[in-house]
Amino acid sequence: MNSKVPRLEWCVVSNDKDGNWWVKEISDEKHWDTSELGIIDPNQAAYVIDLALQLCDYGFDIRLMESCFFVFKIEADAGERRIRLRRTHESVLDTDEKLFLLPDIMDEEKGRYSDFLEEIMKCRVKLLNDMIRAKQLSEMTEFKAHFTKEEFEEVIRESNHSDGIDHHRIHFFQEIATILEYVPKGYDLEGDEDQKRSVEEEIPEGIPDIDDDEIEEDETMRWNDDEFEGEFDDEEDEDDLEDESNEEDDKDDF
User: Fold this and answer.
1) Alpha-carbon distance 8 to 29, whole Å?
2) Which one-letter DSSP state was computed for residue 227?
3) Of residues 85, 89, 102, 86, the one with CA closest to residue 13
4) What is the pLDDT of residue 55?
5) Looking at residue 142, what is its pLDDT?
6) Tell me, what's the pLDDT at 110?
7) SS3 27
8) pTM confidence score
């Protein structure tokens, strides 16, 4: 059992130019290095869950989604495209909350997140082979050898290597999506790409909407400080102009 039990309570995340969210500050600095530490946003989480649900018919246990991620909810706007998140124990599968997911990478080799990647890869291989077989049977072509998990692992390693050349770590969402979206070269699997597009159309890109009701006001809420900035200055300017006008009128009277 891993003795490094994370004591996560909150984190501050930033939306960078690549459109992904990255952890900038975290409550448990002892066990977490925030340099290039990605976090899955609510839009990406919904996309991953929808694609993962496809794999349930191929042996995937969707409950793994509950155990391999630390879950956070929006607490406050921290300004400068940053959001403060608070740890929550809500279910990622049965809620309308906008939840962020941080993979459990305390043990990168044998941890829950690595188990999750292993499972979705294994089940994706089964799904792909099923779709390839159905396509070939419908076209009355000879069914070739199965696409193997070993081949899949090699493809994923090459993809992650090329994507991570300029970065120490690729974003977690990209790592997961590469597996859940993969189709072998030379195969245009009818239905698979259509399903992928339909899911993408349902999920907007960009910064998650933040409703005022979702956020508890505290000292990090910077917009309240600036909301009326300049308003009273404008009123003072108008009073000054009115005084100057009255003085000129008095001079004209003489």
Assistant:
1) 9
2) T
3) 85
4) 96
5) 62
6) 73
7) coil
8) 0.71
Tell me the Ramachandran region of residue 230: left when phi exceeds 0, alpha when psi lies from -120 to 50, beta otherwise: left
Average the pLDDT over 143-172 and give the result: 72
Residues comprising the chain, all counted = 254
Which ranges of the chain would DSSP assign to H, the alpha helix? 42-53, 64-67, 112-138, 149-163, 172-180, 192-202, 223-226, 231-253
What number of other Cβ atoms are within 10 A of residue 252's Cβ? 7
Q: Which of 85, 104, 82, 101 is nearest to 93 (CA)?
A: 101
Contact by Cβ (8 Å): 2, 111: yes
Q: Which two tokens stand for residue 91?
A: 């279910």
Contact 22, 11 (CB under 8 A): no
Going edge to edge, which strands form the sheet with 99-103?
Answer: 38-39, 21-26, 10-15, 82-88, 69-79, 99-103
Here the tokens at position 213 are 């009701």
The confidence score (pLDDT) of residue 65 equals 93
How do residues 100-116 score in pLDDT, each as one tens digit?
999 998 876 678 999 99
Q: Kindly state the tokens that stand for 241.
A: 């102009």
Residue 88 CB partners (closer than 8 Å, separation 6+): 71, 72, 73, 97, 99
Give CA–CA dist 124/54, Å, rounded.
Answer: 9
Residue-wise burial string across 147-170, b where 16 or more C-beta atoms lie within 10 A, e elsewhere? beeeebeebbeebeeeeeeeeeeb
- pLDDT at 179 > cutoff 90: yes
- Cβ within 8 Å of residue 5, ≥6 positions away: none
Rounded distance between C-alpha atoms, residue 75 and residue 55, angstroms? 33
Secondary structure (3-state) at 23: strand
